[in-house]
């Protein structure tokens, strides 16, 4: 039996769903794959629950009362003192700061799995440094859920690229929340702000929905895919159309934005008026690997087109390559939500486990 020690950072919607899925599959994992998953840490931004012998699946009963305030140094000491074999840190936070600590985690003996997209969209210097440190420490970094949530996008693209297949273009709907929002908003007689709130409750938006509405989330995904193709790009190289009106942009705090979210209704009403009955709104990402251009923008699509037909929180990725020249390789399915994302992270745990002793 192979024991994998898991440290979970970010027990929010995705993180707690993952722990639920792991707990349900505990026996199945032991029997079918010979893997014993031992949860040795659960930490949110201020409190951490630590137990080197394994945290019970009922971890969330009184998490705040059982967990202790911590500093990042406490975590590094905990990892070093216990010398956990097959230690994997999972980042299901949406933190901009936590990913900057990945190198320290790797140096403290941990592999990394991330749903959080930030580490792969910081500067190229950080991107390269992280990979250098991973190699030096013989550690893995897997992040399939960075693009398309549970859909197999990152690995498919990497395999095509590494096998020498020339990927020329990727086009599609890369945002589950914007997909859901525009599907609902195009069909229903609801206000935009109401549909946005629904998307948040269903776990499709980022904790700060402005990351989705500003196009930054799609911009990040484009950059992650571009870097998989070894294109030397920064987030500032992505041409991004923001859907947030000026008065809610910039210095507005998240709390203030959430209070004033109804102000979006008029703004989005004009997008809706501007399209015909047989069209739908789609926020698309386009990566041209030949010219190196990356773009995220709102377009009108005929309802009958491939992009027009997607439903719910679906993503669709059309990948054009030398072999898939005229008819692209297409990957479609739910592109957001705690269940599918947690299942994708679970898949990453299995991938890492297969490579460890
Ligand atoms: N929802 C989806 O469909 C998808 C999400 N993702 C990614 O998954 C991540 C999680 O999303 P979601 O579950 O919706 O977010 P939530 O806001 O529900 O959860 C985030 C969790 O992270 C914790 N956290 C914040 N900062 C830190 C920190 N520095 N250290 C440890 N924990 C911290 C928060 O705790 P606290 O209460 O203390 O702030 C909270 O428990 C995001 O990065 C998102 O982009 C990726 C693909 C799809
Ligand atoms: N907020 C994201 C979640 C997955 O990455 C999205 O809407 O696609």
From TrEMBL:
Catalytic EC class: oxidoreductase
Biological processes, Gene Ontology terms: homoserine biosynthetic process; lysine biosynthetic process via diaminopimelate; methionine biosynthetic process; threonine biosynthetic process
InterPro entries per the UniProt record, alphabetical: Asp/hSer_DH_NAD-bd, Bifunc_Aspkin/hSer_DH, HDH_cat, HDH_short, NAD(P)-bd_dom_sf
GO molecular function: homoserine dehydrogenase activity; NADP binding
Family per record: Belongs to the homoserine dehydrogenase family.
Residues bound to NADP(+): 10-15
Enzyme active site: 221 (proton donor)
Annotated Gene3D superfamilies: Dihydrodipicolinate Reductase, domain 2 (3.30.360.10), NAD(P)-binding Rossmann-like Domain (3.40.50.720)
Gene: hom
EC id: 1.1.1.3
Taxonomic placement: Bacteria, Pseudomonadati, Bacteroidota, Flavobacteriia, Flavobacteriales
Pathway entry: Amino-acid biosynthesis; L-methionine biosynthesis via de novo pathway; L-homoserine from L-aspartate: step 3/3; Amino-acid biosynthesis; L-threonine biosynthesis; L-threonine from L-aspartate: step 3/5
Reaction equations catalysed: L-homoserine + NADP(+) = L-aspartate 4-semialdehyde + NADPH + H(+); L-homoserine + NAD(+) = L-aspartate 4-semialdehyde + NADH + H(+)
Annotated NADPH binding sites: 93, 117
SUPFAM superfamilies, sorted: Glyceraldehyde-3-phosphate dehydrogenase-like, C-terminal domain, NAD(P)-binding Rossmann-fold domains
Keyword Oxidoreductase: yes
Protein name (Swiss-Prot/TrEMBL): homoserine dehydrogenase
